[in-house]
Structure formats: C-alpha cells, structure tokens
Write a structure and sequence with these properties.
By secondary structure, the protein is of the alpha+beta class. Helices cover about 30% and strands about 15% of the residues. It has an eight-stranded mixed β-sheet with strand order 1-4-3-2-5-8-7-6. Strands 11-19-20-12-21 form a five-stranded antiparallel β-sheet. α3 crosses α4 and α12 crosses α19. It is globular and about 70 Å long.
C-alpha cells in the first residue's frame, strides 16, 4: 500500500510536467473547425506541411518552442470550437433526450440559414437524369423503428428510439443544432431515414407540408465549412414511392428543361403556401425557400430519385438501395465532402465556394457596424472576363470582337504510340499493363498557385514560372523522344509553331533545358493557392474512404494491389461514396470551363455558367497542365530508370509492355526494396498509381494497328474522358 507522501510526490511530478497536446484527431478537428488548411498552419508554425501532417496523425510531436506555440493555438481554438457532445450510446442517454436538449438550446423548430433567390452566378444544379426507376426496390433489410422527430419528456425512453444496425449509419451528427445530421431519405410509408441511424415519422403528404416538417420538426442540417460561409440547408431525398405520395409524377415530361411546368398542382401548392422556387424551378434537385426573416434562413433541398437526381456514374447503385443505405451513403459523403446540392460536378464547384466564401464580415470603421467585404483568397462575388485566348470560341468577349489570335488548348493527354516506333523486344513482351494515377487532377491542385485578379496583357515578357497566366510561345523546337508523347499537345504530337500555353507547360519546356521566348502573355498580378482547402478536404475524404474499404497507407505494394482487388467486392455503400468523391474532383474541375447546353444557344450570347465567379477556364487549364506535365515527367523518369516506354496514354492512365502480369515486375525498385523516386509508385494517395488492367501484348498491338488507344480499353469496355479531363 503506497504511503501518502509517495502518492503526493507522484501527483506533484504530474503537475510539473508540461501540458500535453490533445489527441491527434482533436488537433485535426480544431484546425478544420477554424477553417485553416495544413499549409497555412505550417506557415504559422514555421514548419513544413509534412510536419503538420505528422502532428495530426500522431507520428511526431513538435519540439520547444514550437510546442508551446502549438499548444497555445489549440487551446484558443478549443475555447472557440468546443467538442460536440458525445454520442448517446457512450454517454448513457437516449437519442430522444439528446434531441430534446439540442432543441431546447437552439429553440424549437429553428430553421436552417437563409436561402435567397438563386442569382445568375449560381451553378447549374441539375444534370441529365438517367431513365427513371419503374418502381421502388424491395428493402434489403428490416427497417428501423420510427420516431416522430418531436422532443420527448425528460427521463423517458420512447419505444421508437432504436437505431439502424451500426453498419447502416453514418457518424452521428456533431453539431447539437442538427441532431439528425445533414439529410434524410423519405420513403412512401412516411419513414424518413436519417444519417444518425433513426427513422423519423413524417406525416407530410404535400411538398409544402414536407418543407414545414423538415424545418420545424427534424433538426436536419449541417454546419458551415468555413467561418465566413453558410450552414448547409437540410436535404430530403425523395424515393419513387415518396414522390407518388407527394403528388409528383413518375418522370419529368420536360426532358430538356428538367422541371415541372409552372401550372403543375405541386408547383401551385408551393406558391399558395407562400414558398418560392429558385430559378431552376422544380427539377431533380429543387430548392424551396422563403425570404430571410432577420438573420434566419428557411430553405429545404429536395433530391427526387425517380427523376435521376443520383446519377448512376457518380453514385453507382445508390438509387436502388434501401432508404437507410441511401442515407448512409449520402451521410458519409456529406460529412466528408459537402451536403449534396446537385450532381457530383455541382458539388465539386459548391465545395470550392463553401471553403473559400466570396465575402466575410468586417467592422465598418465609421459606423461600427458589421458589413460584408471581399474575402481575401476567394474568387469574389462577380464573374471575371477571361483573357481572349483563355475563352471559348463562342464567348461574347471574343466572338463579338473578332478575335483571331488563337486559343489555349490545355487538355489531358490522349496519345497512342506510333506502331513503327515499337521494337522487336517490346512486341515480344507477353503482357500490356495499365497503370492509373489516383485522382491525378486532385494531386495537381495541391499548392497550385492560380490567378485571382483580372489578366493584364504583356508583349515579349520574360518568362517567370512563378506567375500564373497564358503565354504565346513557340515550343516546336523542343525535341522529345518519339517513343514518348509531346507534353505540349493533347494528341502528343509535336507542336508546329507558336501556341498559347499555361505557365506549367512553358515551365516544363524550360525544365527540359530549352530556351523559351514568349511573344505575348496574359498574366495575373494577384495570385493565391485558391484550391488548397478543396484539395485537402477531398484528399482526406478519398484516403479515409479507401481506408474504410481496407486500403490503407501502411500496406506494402503487394498488399496494396491485393486490397485494391478485394475493395471491388467490399461494402457497396462505401464504394459508391468513393465513386462520388472521384466524380466530385473531376466534375468540379470541368465545371470551371462549362459551356452552353441548350440547343437554341447561338455563338456570342452569354450562357448561365459564364455568369458565375467560379467560371474560370484559366484555373481549369492550370490544373490540367500541371497534371499532364506530372504524368509526362513520370514517363520520362521511367524511361531513364528502366528503359521502358509507354504504348498509350489516356489522361491519368498509361499502358506499358511488361514481362509478367504483375506491375511490380516492371517498376524501378532499388536494391533496398523501395521504389526509386520520380517514377510511378503504387499506393492509395492522390498522385500514386494503382493497377488499371492487364491484357496481352498482342491485344495492345492489334488495337494500335487499328488506330485505337489501348489505354481506353485496358480495363475492359471503352473508357471515355470525363468533363474535367
């Protein structure tokens, strides 16, 4: 038995120890709650980004005096952003009691933030739906018990407080204002399945009743992603049977406009109840709102599944799942990315704005009032005209001015090696192996400096690789091995004269040792890493979802390949989330240069997409140019290290002749067993490679002889370039 003196001595020793940092997960939570990227934190701590990442994953701790500075920062954030209340399953209280307390604190029926009339700059929030489902699919599991969503008496346990099986629920809602998470999936029997595992009893039989119930009875919504942003409005996903219950048609007759006609009974019900629709009308992704009352917003989003709200390519199989699994899939996505507001491409663009809000609140020095002002690092609130060579040919800026100076064509590689350059040894190889870079566009967006101000025109400027812009330069003199594609054109063919290029492309020519002499340039004086928080959030979502499927960063290359193969047969909900994350990346980049869609459009007329601040073809060009250069650099390094040259490239997929059907036998490993830096490397993080497919070399040669691209078919089927690619 220890003596009192021994115990007091032990306690005194603990008191003398320096304060400890919070757990790694809490460090990440606090930084994200403050809206600070790892890059910005590293700059403040005078440390590297990799060091900050190690602090947050628990691999290392900062040393003094950086330790004290980090402790002070985390303590300040902890006071501003206290941790959410623990889940009821751990705290010993029932979900209904937690809901009662949350509603008591926030006020009963507290609505989500204001949803104003959609301005011209709002991204198009719909995409062409797939064919509507004929009927609701049968449930794959027992439905959870329902609750009314109403507060219960203290100390009582409602019979309906049971949750879904744990695997069918996303992580419980962290914000006490939104106890049931970001969204719910409504079934035809009035069950609204939430992301936290409960099923609420929804009595609504009309759309206005559904909106009122959502705002006043459910506690559905999500907190803002940036302190200057806005909370996400609640989302109700409407299944086919629920649509019929609400009086919605099985399919939209207006296949071009994708909306209900204004004289449809449901639209008239909404108007009669003094609710409004945004300019997109009532389509697959509808927003129903009332103008703000004071500081409070009233807006509900609807996703109509039978109208194709969840595109099969971005959300494979989700529309056919049981409502509880749909809620789980969308809930994980909402937690890791953003509450869905449209198709994957729309979500990619909305995420950029949510993480870099165009305005922030500042205090007026004269009046002392808080006013809205430009948020540094954002794209602002007004659209910006591109430089003429950055625009599309139909853009009013160039079409109506008679511009004839040419256009920048920064696109992903689509190249097939000339058959005459194949050697006998290559043709005799038994296999062709395709390697695919994980989220290549996302990797290119990391620490990518882009222009934030309008372009200025310069004649014969000296090239500066640190200035983002568009340069007219002749790169036809750059010699590239004919067994490699030219990095300066989409087709991989050698340029024939002066052309417009983005900064990364010109810098790569300089990296290869060639002189570059720009003739003209459109450059931007104000710059910034606009996509950094977007990259950080999507990278975490991608890596975490892969890890949930068993593909973690600590695997050996052989284990990684095996885990990736097993992932295909893993949880369909998580695989769907992974596909949605990838669609968000590619689609978001593509939306930066979205063109007109309507058949009646005439060149020279403005179109909706170009009227938003996030219509920035120069930023899209910067991402694609950097991704293409990164791919070419890896191919060049592979040739130097191994003597292997590619057969074909399609964006982020490259096909090589190989001695075996295993990619590890063709990659440049050192004697130590580690891959040599600079070439393709296997792994689950953005920019690393995975196996895309294996075919016979005879199969690849046959396609090349037919003028076809083996990279399009190496996986099986016929691959196509996505909007961003």
């Amino acid at each position: 038995m220890p003596t009192e003196e021994e115990l007091f001595a032990s306690i005194d020793a603990l008191l003398e120890e320096p304060p400890q940092l919070p757990p790694p997960a809490e460090r990440t939570r606090l930084r994200e709650a403050a809206g600070i990227t790892q890059a910005r934190l590293a700059q403040a701590l005078k440390a590297s980004i990799s060091a900050v990442k190690n602090y947050e994953n628990g691999r290392s701790e900062p040393k003094s005096p950086r330790l004290e500075a980090y402790q002070r920062l985390l303590k300040g954030w902890a006071e501003k952003y206290p941790a959410a209340e623990p889940d009821s399953s751990r705290s010993g209280r029932w979900p209904a009691d937690r809901e009662r307390e949350a509603q008591t604190e926030a006020g009963p029926g507290k609505p989500s933030p204001e949803c104003a009339e959609a301005p011209k700059t709002r991204p198009d929030s719909t995409q062409a739906p797939s064919e509507p489902e004929a009927a609701e699919t049968a449930p794959t599991q027992a439905a959870p018990a329902r609750t009314t969503g109403q507060p219960t008496r203290p100390g009582t346990r409602p019979a309906s407080s049971r949750r879904h099986p744990a695997k069918n629920a996303a992580r419980p809602a962290a914000d006490p204002r939104y106890p049931h998470g970001a969204l719910a999936v409504l079934d035809g029997d009035g069950s609204a399945y939430t992301v936290t595992g409960t099923a609420l009893d929804c009595p609504a039989t009309t759309v206005p009743e559904l909106v009122e119930w959502t705002l006043n009875k459910t506690g559905i919504g999500a907190a803002r992603l940036h302190k200057s942003g806005k909370d996400s409005d609640p989302l109700i996903v409407v299944t086919a049977s629920a649509a019929a219950r609400l009086g919605l048609p099985e399919r939209l007759e207006d296949r071009r406009g994708l909306r209900l006609p204004e004289d449809h009974p449901v639209v008239e019900q909404i108007t009669k109840a003094r609710w409004q629709l945004t300019r997109r009308g009532f389509g697959p992704w509808a927003r129903i709102y009332r103008k703000a009352q004071g500081r409070e917003r009233q807006c509900v989003q609807l996703a109509i599944l039978p109208w194709g709200a969840l595109d099969e390519r971005s959300w494979p199989g989700v529309a056919d799942m049981h409502p509880s699994d749909i809620a789980r899939a969308l809930g994980i996505y909402a937690e890791r990315v953003i509450t869905p507001r449209g198709g994957a491409a729309v979500n990619g663009l909305e995420l950029m704005t949510a993480l870099r809000p165009p305005t922030r609140a500042v205090r007026d020095q004269q009046t002392g009032n808080w006013v809205s002002a430009h948020n540094p690092g954002s794209l602002g609130t007004e659209p910006m005209d591109p430089a003429p060579p950055e625009a599309r040919e139909e853009h009013p800026l160039v079409h109506n001015s008679g511009w004839t100076g040419g256009y920048m064509a920064e696109e992903a590689l689509r190249w097939t090696r000339p058959i005459e350059t194949l050697t006998g040894d290559e043709v005799q190889m038994p296999y062709a192996i395709g390697l695919d870079l994980n989220t290549a566009f996302l990797a290119a967006a990391a620490r990518l400096v882009v222009g934030l101000s309008a372009p200025d025109h310069f004649h014969t400027p000296a090239f500066n690789p640190k200035i983002p812009g568009t340069w007219l330069v002749d790169l036809s003199h750059v010699e590239i091995d004919p067994r490699l594609p030219s990095p300066f054109t989409q087709t991989g063919e050698r340029p024939t004269g002066p052309a417009w290029y983005q900064t990364h492309t010109v810098a790569y020519a300089q990296e290869l040792g060639y002189n570059v002499a720009p003739i003209e340039a459109y450059l931007r004086r104000e710059t910034g890493a606009y996509l950094d928080p977007w990259h950080d959030r999507l990278k975490t979502a991608y890596v975490d979802t892969l890890a949930d499927l068993g593909v973690t960063k600590d695997l050996t290359d052989a284990q990684f390949l095996q885990a990736m193969e097993q992932r295909k047969n893993g949880d369909p909900v998580l695989n769907a989330v992974l596909a949605a994350v990838k669609g968000t990346i590619k689609g978001g980049i593509g939306k930066l240069n979205e063109g007109p869609h309507h058949d009646s459009y005439r060149d020279g007329e403005p179109w909706p997409a170009m009227m938003r601040p996030t219509w920035r073809p120069d930023i899209r060009a910067a991402v694609i140019a950097k991704a293409r250069v990164n791919m070419h650099r890896k191919m060049r390094n592979m040739a130097t290290m191994t003597g292997r040259y590619p057969l074909a490239v399609l964006s982020d997929c490259v096909v090589y002749p190989a001695p075996t059907d295993h990619p590890m036998d063709m990659l440049p490993y050192a004697e130590s067993g580690k891959i040599q830096p600079g070439a393709f490397r296997l792994g689950p993080t953005p920019g690393l490679a995975k196996l895309e497919g294996v075919q016979s070399m005879a199969w690849a040669v046959d396609l090349i002889e037919q003028g076809m691209n083996p990279a399009s078919h190496i996986k099986g089927g016929n691959a196509v370039l996505d909007d961003g690619e």
